[in-house]
Every structure is written in structure tokens, then in C-alpha cells.
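$ run holo --ligand "flavin-adenine dinucleotide" --emit C-alpha cells
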Amino acid sequence: MALNPLLDSRDLRFALFEVLDADKFNQFEKFADFDRDTYEATLELAEQIAVELVYPANKEADTIGAKYDPADKTVTVPEGFHTAMKSYTEAGFSGLSNGQEYGGTGMPETIYRAVMEYFCAGGVAFSSYDTLKVGACDLIINHGSEELKKTYVEKMVSGRWGGTMCLTEPGAGSDVGALKTRAVKQPDGTYKITGQKIFITAGDNDLYENIIHPVLARIDGDPPGTPGISIFIVPKFFVNPDGTLGKRNDVTTTGIEHKMGIKGSATCSLSFGDNDQCIGWLLGQERQGMKIMFQMMNAARLDVAQQALGTASSAYMHAVTYAKNRLQGSDPAKRGDFTSVPIIKHPDVKRMLIWMKAQVEAMRMLTLLAAYSADMAHVKKGTDEGKEAQALLDFLIPLCKAGNSDLAWLVTAEAMHVYGGYGYCSEYPVEQLARDCKILAIYEGTNGIQSMDLAMRKLLMNPEMFNFTVFKKRIAAACEKAKGIVDDKYIAAVKEAVDKMDAAVQTLAGWRDSKKILDILAIATPLQQAMRMIAHAWMHLWSMTVAVPKLKGIAGDIEGEKVAAVVKDNAEAAFYYGKILSNKFYLSTELRHLYGYLEYITGGDPAAVNECFEEVFTGALPQ
Ligand SMILES: Cc1cc2nc3c(=O)[nH]c(=O)nc-3n(C[C@H](O)[C@H](O)[C@H](O)COP(=O)(O)OP(=O)(O)OC[C@H]3O[C@@H](n4cnc5c(N)ncnc54)[C@H](O)[C@@H]3O)c2cc1C
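-- output --
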């Protein structure tokens, strides 16, 4: 397996095929056409395009950025993105997860997400174009009329036409229900749309011949807030009956943002209906807009999780390479010998690297598990197994979106530390990764909003806390399976973590019952972070259960001098040995942070937050 600077392909295969058995999807009719060889060929091609085209283009795009021409109100993206996108679409990645009836490949979501990890590691800015298009296209497939499907889907699947998601407005960010964009029904059944949307990723660009905007708006007379929102398909160019492009719709790009990172991603302000001629087509039923958009938002949250994972992975890989090559200081194990050694010999550097490795590997497994759950919910729909898979997916989405994006920021920061002063300089790659990933905690619902979603909708208000019950049931099964394979102390660590979390959740359920909702909201973020640690502990125990017998099979044991000798010149043994150390580090050391979070959640004083009226924060200027 080729080495690359972006992600550990061996670890991706481990998660996909040794832990999740993704190669067995062909037992289901929907995926009968695919086998391990097809998946391998797809992953290898993705790796090649990501490493050879996307990664260099993304570095270049950081300097050039997307450009807005105020004269003709158009946006252009760096040339390298055109070259990379051409190869990407020609290779069929644009329609990888779409059904064959729409011209796609129809692969499982698990494989699609594994492939996307390569492209996200290659560059978040590049990945932002196609991921939103996939989401917009899926909305039309799942909720569009036959006419909408016929008009748009095939061209979007093929990658000729792009897509966006248009929610945000100047006065409606986290509070989508506050939107002011209006829709008025026309006698021919279409709607006239007027309003301003801001921060629209890929809202305009020259990568695609046409751009299809799903736009949230309120039909005149409909109720305020989210219940009154409908969703419309608004193309940049109208489409003639023969499928060719017609004249331009009344959608104007009024500017792009100048940002800290992802500079190649065009973040656009769009004005709909400046000349009262912007036409949109209703998707689904009137006032069903939020329900429909939630489908795209859930997928987009996993896209963001993937972007975070890809960035963290790339930062970690770069840090390892640097640490193996940078000579500084003498070997701490050889007193009196002043020969310079690679910094990877220093315990503090090793600590940073194993910490990054353990985080990245857990993020990867959890994100793929979420995708796997989406596939299982689909193929097992209508059964108890399908219901449980859906419940697990719902629970994991905020943990992957917020968890991965919080960690990506920390992992990229740690990678900068491994580089020392060079990490702070733009000549080296990690500072761009840190700048690029900061947005991931903010867009697609800030991590504060994700945490509230987890605490309330997914946990405490979820009927009978079914999601959490499924989550705990799966962890209990993993503990059972680990018995006799993994040292009991690691199983006990996971059990203790779950028991203590369970007790904390019971306390919070008491707060819910006594209507102390503000107190719950005040600890939602630490709760989400603690729950993510439990999920990651589960991933580490699960992978240890798989890795231990594999290493024993190669080296006879999992530790000791004999094993270390085998590991030195056997790449497979080295992989499993490193995997087990990463598991041990997380379960014996990193997981201890959990108890601080749990103390914070139930032992702290939420009143110290909630009694902070505005005047408490003295010294700030009034607006
Ligand atoms: C680069 C970029 C790309 C984007 N792409 C898109 C896109 O393609 N489509 C799109 O529609 N939007 C997009 N957005 C918008 C993005 O989703 C919003 O910025 C985000 O949802 C937050 O909204 P806001 O910026 O108005 O912040 P605000 O909503 O003003 O939030 C500010 C702070 O207050 C907190 N807060 C707000 N309300 C609550 C509450 N009820 N409870 C607790 N805390 C709260 C937030 O968590 C945050 O910390 C993009 C933004 C950026 C910067």
C-alpha cells in the first residue's frame, strides 16, 4: 500500500474491512454489484487524485483564493481546482453514492465516506464544492417531483451542475426560523422568490455550468418561525425543455467573504429577485421546508465531520514525517551522548504524536460507523435492526460533527507544536490546516447548537431515551466481545466510563423533569465532549479486540522484546502494534479526562453561568 502525506490508508482499510466488514455489503441486493476489489480500486483512485491533484491545488488555492469580479458579478476558482475536479468527475466520484438509475455508481455510503476522507484530507476547500452538490441532488431525488428529477438529477450526478444549501441570512444564522426570504405562488404553480442569503458555500463559481440552489423561504401568509418555512429549487440558469441551458434566473452574486481559511471555497452572498424575476420550484409540500432540509443538514453534518477528520489526519501525518526527520537534542535514553537525534525520540513529542494518532483513529472509526449505520438503516428499513441503526446514526451525528471539528482544531494545533517555530510559518503545511479547519466548528450548525441537539433532542427529549439505550447496548456488546481477548483492565475502563455517564444522564433527566432546562443548556457542550469520549473509548476497545489476535498471529504476542523485534521489519506487525498502543493510550490515559467533564457536568454550579446577566461582563462597549 502506497504511503501518502494525507492519511494512513492502512488504517482506513482496518476500519472499513477488519472492523466494520464493509466488504460484506454485497449480501444486500442493493450492493450486490460490488466487492472488495471494486472498493480497493475506487479507494486507490481517490488516493491518487487527492494526493497528486487536490492537495497541491488546495495549497495554491490558499494563496490565490476564489475571486469575485464586481463588474460582471461572477466568481472564479483557482485553475488547479478545475484540473482536479475534471479528474474527480471523470473518475465517477461525483455520483459515487447516487443510485445507478440516476447515472451514479450506487456504492454504500460507508465507501463513499471513506473515499471522501481522501478528498477532504486533500483540501477542505476543494471538497466543499461537490459535497454540497451531492446533498442538494439527494434532496431532489428524495423529495422532488418527477419533473424536477428529470430536469436536474442526471446533470448533477454527472458533476456538470453544482448545488448549494441556502439557509443563512444576515438576521437568521443559528435561528433559521427568523429568515425573511419570501415566496409568492404564481398561477403556473412556480414561486417568485425575493431575499438575501449570505455565507453560501459554492454559491457561485465557474466549476459548474449551472448551480442549483435549495432555498429556504416563507410563503406569504405562512406562520412565523420554522413551521412556516418551505423549500424551493432555484437554478442559476433556467433549463429548456430539451435539457439545454436557458436564460439566467434572477439570482445575483453580490460578493464573496474574505476568510481566515478555506480561501479556495467561494463563500457567497446571493440576492434573489432583485428584478422580481427569480423563479423557484417547490420541493415537497408547502411548510415542510425544515423537515426536508434536515435530511440535507444531517448529511452535511457528516460531510463536516469528514472534513475535520481529513484535516486532522493530514496534520497528524505531516507531524509524524517531520518528527522523524527533524534532528534536535540528544537521545534522552542515552545520557552523556550528545549526538542529535530525530525529535520523535523525545517522550514529549511521542506523547503529542500518540495523542494525535489516538484521536484521528477514533474519529475515523466513529465517522465510518455513522455511515455504516446509515447504510444499515437503509437496507434493514422496517425491521428492529433498521430502527436501531437509525437511532445510533441520529445519536452519532452531533458527536461526529462537533467531536471531529473540535478535535481537528486541537490536532492541527498540536501538529504546529511538533513543528516548533516552523509550524507557525506558512512555508510549512500545518498552519494552513489549522486555519482551514476552524470553520468546521462553526458552520453547518455551530458546535454549541450540535451540543444542544445532542443533550435535548437526541438524549433527554428522545422518547424513552431510545438512542442512548442503543448506544449503551452496542458498547455493552463490544465489552462482551472483548472478554478473553483484551486485558480486563481496558474493558473495565470502558464499563466504568459508561456507568458514570449513565449516572450523569440520570441526574440530567432529573433536571429535565424539574424543568431546570437552562441548567442543562449551560452544560450541553461539556456533555457532548464527554459523550464523544465514551464513543471514542468504545472505538478503541473495538479495534483492540480486532488487533490483538492479528498481532498475536504474526508476532506470537502483543508486547515484549521478541514482538518489538518482529515489529521492526514487518509492516503489518508494526501497524497492529501501533494500533494497540493507540488503544492502550486512549483507554488507560486520555479517557481519564472524562471524569473531569463528568464532575463539571453534575458537580458544578450551573447557576454561576445562568445568573450572569449582561451587566456582569463589565468593560465591554455597548453596541
Ligand atoms: C465559510 C462559511 C461557509 C458557510 N456556508 C454556508 C452555507 O453553505 N449555507 C448556509 O446556509 N450557511 C452557511 N454558513 C453560515 C453558517 O452556517 C452560520 O455562520 C452558522 O450557522 C452560525 O450563524 P451566525 O454566523 O449567524 O452566528 P450566530 O447564530 O449569531 O451565533 C453566534 C454564537 O451564538 C451562539 N448561539 C446562537 N444562537 C444560540 C442559541 N439559541 N443557543 C445557544 N447558542 C446560540 C452560536 O452557537 C455562536 O456561538 C457558512 C458560514 C461560513 C463562515
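-- notes --
Residues 164-168, 173-174, 199-201, 259, 267, 439, 442-446, 448-449 surround flavin-adenine dinucleotide (CB under 6 Å).
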